[in-house]
Amino acid sequence: MINKLNPQMLIIILSLGVVTTYSNAANNDRYSIKQCYEDIKKHDAIDFFETTTYMGSSFSPDNKSILLGSDKNGIFNLYEIDVNTGKESILTKFKSTTYPVSWFPNDKRILFTQDNSGNELYRLFIRETNGTITTLTNTENTRANFINFTNDGTFFYMTTNERDSQFMDLYRYNSDTYERSLVFENKHGFEIIDVSGDGRFVSLFKSISNKNSNTYILDLKNTTLKPILINDQKQLANYTPKTFSKDSKKLYYSTDSNSEFSQIWEYDIKSKKHNLIIKDNWDVNFIYFSKSGKYQVSGVNANSRTRITISDTTSGKKIIFPHNLPKGDIHSINFSRDEKTLSFYINSDISPSDLFVWNINKNSVKQLTQSLNSYINPKDLVNSKTVYFKSFDEVIIPGLLFKPKRNTTKHPAIIYVHGGPGGQSRKGYNPIFQHLINNGYAIFAVNNRGSSGYGKTFFHLDDKKHGEDDLKDIIYGKKYLESLDWIGSNKIGIMGDSYGGYMSVAALTFYPEEFDIGINIFGVTNWVRTLNSIPPWWEPFKKALYDEMGDPATDGKRHKAISPLFHTKNISRPLMVIQGANDPRVLKVESDELVENVKKNGTPIKYIVFNDEGHGFTKKSNRIKASKAYADFLNHYLPPLESKNCKL
To answer: Which positions fall inside the Peptidase S9A N-terminal domain (predicted)?
Structure first.
């Protein structure tokens, strides 16, 4: 949850740290099972997750290799891939999930980060060139975050909340000795975004409300160390720092002050002048530059897809990607240090992210990874279609609709609700979706009001109306599905993760006759407890959170009214609950209480606790078990209809 303020089960093996609890009501004909799969090859969950997930695309200082994070062996670890041959070499073999941060600028040391089984207390480490590990953050129960290196690589910056769990302070580290010094003691709830390449300026973000935020610049040469506000406050608007120019003379930031959508502006630090740089009919989400500043990369969230633009800043010309690339969204673009080669990923509904390198001068492209399990025929996978429907008040709601390829007259359907509040279901490979589609289920990923990407008016339509107006959008999404001649109107379920998990249980609670089944993945069910027990490091965003959800001190009555935990007597349809034991956002006790109460109704319920996960899945084995659990649960209580030519 809380993506809106800034950003994915049942046969369980106890030795892997998973606990499962069952409670079954009497069987009835409603849940009889009849299936047949003669149309396309039917796959188990493991097939869809035996893809390899990659992350990271930064070049080594010698331009010969790229640093990756990969779960090839089940848990994310660090890998190096040769740009010319595509050969992968494993660099770490930790049992804890390990994510890449960056190469050092002038040698092959590596910064990386880990937390403890999903507790979100991230620590920073260095892999030395001889393979030994240096720990940068030793303090228990603290978080650390890497910011960047100076242009010459002499120093790097990171933040940590070791002084005060609520606030992140800025430290500078010597790249050779790792000696550190406190640069900025953050006592007023700023979020530290970036440090200029010359080490002089720091960009700061301050959340005022969920409609209003400010951008500041801190001059480290000024002995007062007083952050200077760079935006006006004449209207409610969000101002978010993005990056400094490579010469450290300008700051780029985004704002929706002049538009329904976010634009990119440039602030000249010396003259204090603001200039509009990029605008679009959608949100411009990011901007950054290659090492020398020659190339500018920007990205637009265009109707649940990412549209990338690369420009040559010396000529103003756009760099056109080769035409022979696979279809999909390009993301995670990086330039080699000599700026001759570009690395990037391509992702689509039917293809996981694969890494490519492109020699700009020779215009030659090479695919370095093959992520999709070779056992799966891409032709058996399904692309989504963007569709729209009118909600109860005529607001137009978008969504991504997946139609199974099975030869069936009527498909059961699942409405999937994304996390947040304020997240967005986007185009891209989703193994959970493809597994369920392969089992015969249509998937409708609804971007209800309050979702990001559709303008600030749409984004704020759910403010202090959660579990009410946004839930009605989901109900009207079900009505839309019922209007389709290929959907079985009496076989529609709901599932979601995080805030979407809340929405799933809320639907079964407050509209008990609408959905035939529900799956709650890490979802809030008691807003009273959740809003009173937020992690301390969310303190800078608490005001914005309360503007979004309501202040527990004054809105407690409404929070109780929209919390399924206090109305579990209404839940009569089969429910699955997924929980991470180490979840710092949705505490395990919430799910424990929900399950215990629902059992009293005699309602079919299945409860799974992953003891080595937090708010989401990091281990491939757990993702596979979870996805199998979803399919088993749905196949039992919401089975697909027979295919036209099916003979049982």
So the answer is: 106-370
